[in-house]
């Protein structure tokens, strides 16, 4: 519904009220005379509440001209119904109308029309609404039929309202977008950091649920899908998929490690050569460097946080001459790659942002 305060002015001619006068151009009366003469019985169709202001007295004016023309004005506040469509909410525009009609007189007895067409509506230029922008006013008129009483003239005050979007951008769209982007951070976190990635995923899911609940609490309760519902639920799906993505990564990592463990148990990496030693290489060491590092274990050479980015090279060497060590380095090297990211994480870093950007392009091009 909407509430409007207006000055409703009626113009008609009643020759019974004419009077001869050479000095007075008109005579003005208050509401007490209104009850003694005929006035149009106009009412507001589909109004919920309406009243005439009475502070400090009834805000009613009656002005009579010598030729019998009458100006009848009153200050009214009316709350009326407006059939709104929220399918594009909050990127919507609403067209509402205030309808005036005679209650008793049919079109054979009383004709209602706008005195100056669209010029009959004059609004204050300073009027502004916190949530809507008033785009235009215009007038129309038509006949309304009632099966039991007949045809009546009905006048319409039509106005178009466009909703301001900036409030919803700050309170709804930006937080939802930031939550989706925050869920992508887990793609760059070590897949073995289970507490970090799980807590981040659960936090973003719960935050999106809170945003959806808070937004729906202040929205019109309609049974169809609104534009903001599409954006919020698609964002929620992206956040939820990021949690499922890590579930898949964790499961595949566990399966891969189990297979590698069985493979190592079946084929020991020392290949039966005694005095084998293990060291960590990053792929940039020469054979002489490898020989000088042959006495160190993997844990002694590389800090724990750097292990994930390097290559574990199991070298099988015997305590012989350098030439024999070189032959051992060339002939008995087993490689096993340990990475901190899974292939799914690498693809997700591109697929998730790209898909979400594509969705935003389609969404804003359709609804804006």
Automatic annotation (TrEMBL):
Ion transport among keywords: yes
Residues that span the membrane, as ranges: 165-186, 198-218, 230-252, 350-367
Main location: membrane
One Gene Ontology MF term: GABA-A receptor activity
Membrane topology: Multi-pass membrane protein
GO cellular component, one term: chloride channel complex
Keyword Transcription regulation: no
CDD domains recorded: LGIC_TM_GABAAR_rho
Family matches, as Gene3D superfamilies: Neurotransmitter-gated ion-channel ligand-binding domain (2.70.170.10), Neurotransmitter-gated ion-channel transmembrane domain (1.20.58.390)
Reactions mediated catalytically: chloride(in) = chloride(out)
Domain Neurotransmitter-gated ion-channel ligand-binding, first and last residues per copy: 1-164
Domain of life: Eukaryota
Domain Neurotransmitter-gated ion-channel transmembrane intervals: 172-364
Xref: InterPro entries: GABAA/Glycine_rcpt, GABAAa_rho2_rcpt, Neur_chan_lig-bd, Neur_chan_lig-bd_sf, Neur_channel, Neuro-gated_channel_TM_sf, Neuro_actylchol_rec, Neurotrans-gated_channel_TM
Location of the protein in the cell: Postsynaptic cell membrane
Keywords, alphabetical: Cell membrane, Chloride, Chloride channel, Disulfide bond, Glycoprotein, Ion channel, Ion transport, Membrane, Postsynaptic cell membrane, Signal, Synapse, Transmembrane, Transmembrane helix, Transport
Family (UniProt): Belongs to the ligand-gated ion channel (TC 1.A.9) family.
Protein name from the UniProt record: GABA(C) receptor
Species assigned in the record: Columbina picui (Picui ground-dove)
Source species taxonomy: Eukaryota, Metazoa, Chordata, Craniata, Vertebrata
